[in-house]
Every structure is written in C-alpha cells, then in structure tokens.
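Researcher: I'd like a structural prediction for the single chain below. Treat it as a standalone chain; there are no partners to consider.
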Amino acid sequence: MTEEKKNAVTTNEETSVEFMPFGANDKIRLTASMVRQFIAVPTKSGALPTERDCIRFIMLCRGKRANPFEGDCFLIGYDSQNGPSFSLVCGLELFEKRACMEESYNGTESGIIVQTQENEIVERPGTLVLIGEKLVGGWAKVHRKDRAMPEYKSVDFATYDIGYSRWKKDPGGMIMKVARSQALRAAFPTALGGLYTQEEMQRVTEMGEDTARAPVSMPKRLSEATEAEPQPGAQPPAGQQADAAKKEPEPADADDGEQTISGIIETVNRKPGKSSKGEYVKCGICVTTATGDVWVNTFNTDLADAAEAAKGQKGDFIVKQGKYGMDLIDFGLPENEA
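Model: Treating it as a single chain, here is the predicted structure.
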C-alpha cells in the first residue's frame, strides 16, 4: 500500500464514527460529509455547516446515542449577526423515550398557564384556552421515584412564540412541549443534558436571533488559595500538602477553549463514586441561561458548595468543553452581586 493510500485510509477512519443508537439493533455510521449532505438544514442564505460543526454534531449523537436518520435529532442552520450558526435540536419523542427507560421515572404532568378574564393566573392541565383568556405560558412536572418533590418548570409563552406555523395553529401545545422538555432535562441531566427540542430552539433557528452574549468580566476566583481542581479521589502525599497550598494558580489561557457563561443557579446535584485512585464526588450544577438550561460538571466540592449557597442568584461560570459536557474551571458572582 502506497503512502498516499495509507493517508487516505487514516483520514477516512478519523472522520467516520460508528455507534449503536438508543433502542436500535444495528450500528450506524456518520461522517462529516454525510451530515452536511443528508442531515443538516442549511441557513436561509444557503450556508452549510463547517466540518467542525459536523464533528460536534456527530460526537453529541454518539454520546447521546441519537439516530439522526430516524428523526431523533437535527442540525439546523440560521443566519445570525455573527454569520451562519448551527444548532442541534431533538424531537420531544427522544426525551420521552429516554425518560421511560430510566428506572426512577414515575410519570409527567403538564399543561398551560392562562390569564382569565378576572386577571387571575391559572395553571391548567392540557392545552385548552377558553374564549376571553390569554395564554401566558406552559408548565410541567416530572416525578421520580427516588425524589420526594417533582422537578417543576414553567416557561413564558412570549419568549418562544414565533407567531406562525404550529405556534399559530396550536400555541398551547407548543409551549407545553417546551415546558415538558425542560422539566425532563432537569430531572434526567445525564440522559438528556445538552439536548434541546425543536420547540425550544425554533425562535432562534427560524427568526435568526443571535444567541451570542455580551462579554462579561471575569468573576473573582474562589479557588485562588488552592491547587487546580483535583482528579476524583486524588490526594497529594502528606509531605507535599503544605507546599501545594503555597503554590499560586496558573493564569487561565484565553485561547485554551475556556468560556464564561452566566445564568441563574437552579440545582446542584452530587453523585459519589469510586475509581482506581479512590472515592470521589461528581457534582453537577444546572444553570438557566437566556437560551435554556446548561449543566456544568466538577469534582471540586468547594465550588459546588459555593454554587449551592448562591442558588437562585445569577452566577458567572468559567467552563471548558470536556469529554462528557461542560467542565467547571471556576465560579463566582458578578461584582455587583458579590
């Protein structure tokens, strides 16, 4: 085999990913060119996703075991102020199927929120809006057998309504789907974290709204007196603990993939585990941003404690894309709230 053919084979292996979709019996294969030609929906200006967009889509499909050929997920383009952008969106059916496979799942309730003629705000099961009432939002509760309280979400109709298509024909059903997807994602972050439904993202993808946020100042670091975040269960030798405490943290590399997200701190979950290095606690923090819920992960319990103490407040999170989602580098409150 010539060197040229070897390189061609290597390139093909690097851009081809095979995996078994959720609930399927056969593997599927995805490549960047397949995503671009057969799956991605171009922007209104006709732009197609870059190879990087396609690879991110493929890796998320593999991580969540979603089959784009069966409508589990879509890569939809839209024209923003910063140029063409692409969002991965899913069908609500994928959320429902994933939830039903969880042993702790114990059912979902959902409905709409209306303003009556007497100006009362009423949460109602189903999607019926009576004459003279105004639809103002949707709500959903997801019950888990291992939790005393259900996961509850309510969403504002004006935030998601695009004024046409299914939003005009069935506004109650559409806003209820948004509430259901957010409640399911919050109840099962491992299975659904990082996934968003068509109903949640339709305003962005069809109306071209730019989701880019204005730059925010870096929050004051809470971990300046400690070493960088330890690996699960890792402990320095006793003789080195004093020296480690004296070390100054290295400054964050602005080009190292770090970014800052801002949002309201909703939930802090902790999951203990064991590895070859010992016991650890993995913490997940749910942050509600302008475009939906985002989960960030950390093994640093000090950062998790600080976030839990600030639940309900707006926080700034320095994060970096990791193998299984967003990894938390540091956390703080904005200067005007600190």
